[in-house]
């Protein structure tokens, strides 16, 4: 190879390296945002994900579970970028521990609960007082020890004076989705379930909203994880779900999205 050809080869090789490097940078920018989210958010978040990804060029990866268990995972360093909780107290705990950026936190929804049953069982219960019926053997709720929707269900039973009457019938899901599955599989005739799951499954299930005064408000708060490497993208996701199309999707699934 003569010197002129050798020089041309070096220039071409260097140019190829630059193109490859630029391609790798683009790949890094199109990262995946990992979102830890309360189980009641499953239907809404899955629906709004496609438009968010198209608008922002950021892929979303969701981990749904009970708020308390997800908070424990974040405290132990789980690789999440955003935490969408179903109860403000867990976010406050993580702000205090330094795991959530306080300035990023905002209420993004207020949830509701109600009685849920298969459509074929419509009429088996119209209110909490009907849960004493001999036709109802099992009542499904999320575990109130770590699931905010379970806490709200237990509050409603206490406020109505029905907890002692039906406590022996209660079965506990790990989270609100698991509580719904108990109804879906016929393991429970009735459940006290998140309205969002009622809206998502209204073709095959009957849902009766309960009075909000029966329980403490289900104030759902979201924030960016402090050790996330994608904090700007995390904030973009938060902004998306409380404005525009994201807000409309949340409201479609029965959430009240507060004004800023």
From TrEMBL:
UniProt keyword annotation of Nucleotide-binding present: no
Coiled-coil residue spans: none
Keywords: Metal-binding, Molybdenum, Signal
One of the record's GO molecular function terms: molybdate ion binding
Signal sequence bounds: 1-21
Binding site for molybdate: 67, 176
Record SUPFAM superfamilies: Periplasmic binding protein-like II
Matching PROSITE patterns: PROKAR_LIPOPROTEIN (PS51257)
Keyword Signal: yes
Name assigned to this protein: Molybdenum ABC transporter, periplasmic molybdate-binding protein
